[in-house]
Predict the structure.
Amino acid sequence: MIQPDEPELPSGVSGQSNGSLRRSALRFVLLVGAMSFFADFTYEGSRSILGPFLAALGASALAVGVITGFGELLGYGLRLVSGRLSDRTQQFWPITISGYVLQMSVVPLLALAGSWQIAAVLIVLERVGKATRNPPRDVMLSHAAHQMSGYGWAFGLHEAFDQAGAMVGPLAMAAVLAERAGGYRFAFATLAIPAVVMLSLLITARLLYPRPEEMDSHAPQIGSRRLPRVFWLYLVGAMLVAAGFADFPLVAYHFAKASVVSSAAVPILYAVAMGVSGAGSLLFGRLFDRAGIAILVPLTLGSALFAPFVFLGGYWLAGVDPLSWTPEHLEARAFRRESTCHEQDHRIHPSSGLRRCAWRARPASRSTARRRTSASATRPCATGSARPRSMPGRPKA
């Protein structure tokens, strides 16, 4: 078995031992994880009650669909812009901070929205903030993950914090609405508390780790060759799945207008969906290791039940909805977390916002894994960083 070489110490931290660097990298990942917990607490808490709030402001179903759809379009499309800007300027912290400040500022301001049009502007700005901060933040995480010698572990740890916040936030909103029926403005105002905590942690991280890239001694490999055909095939499939997907604010709007569930129960359903999504990503990620891309077929078919359960069913089918709504997220996470890059893959820089992996239908055999050298042990992938060839559940060489 070929053992990977120990990473060389970056010049900026040449006085530290490898063990000290790993501990520092772990602390950075935990700090960013805590940031993500309170960030998700804030914006996922708000998204769990946006639908009923817009309904109370007099917005139509068409307006809610357009607002949330346009917000998601910007939330993903602008990552190409912020990622490319991060590449060119290398100003990862300033871009990350600007995105977080924008996102954390507009959510509590929803409490002051006097019309659904003003609320729409704030909702879209929240998505723009997320698009701005995600690529550069993930690049900084990748540097720490490289030093930890475990990309799956580092990003999985961050995902755990992220998903926990996505559950706690909606549950907090449910508690507020249970105490104050229809108190949406007060609920949004209370989200200023986790937003302030998040921004405080952001400032702390910036002061403690001004240059996270110094934890990584290896520069990413950048390629400019054409994307493989399998990428475009997967992209078309993902677009078709997304075309049949309704964002939760529209679902919550329907629940409120049709009186399917109480206002306090709507964020609870969202919290359940987040919990099922988080737990399911671990389960289906492990199954993806064993069964390959075939596992996405039942997930896609399961997500097709989403629309009739939500829009044609009553109270009990609405309760089943989180189980049918989350497979669309799970199939994306199965690809994102469990796919690996081949040695021949075409690669681009992590902060570009594009996921550059060739998806494999079957995991590599043990004999194939043994033949890999330490130089090919990791490849830039998923969030844009190198990732370990040995994934959870796959035999290690």
Remarks:
- Residues 116-148 form the longest helix (33 residues).
- The chain has a mean pLDDT of 75.
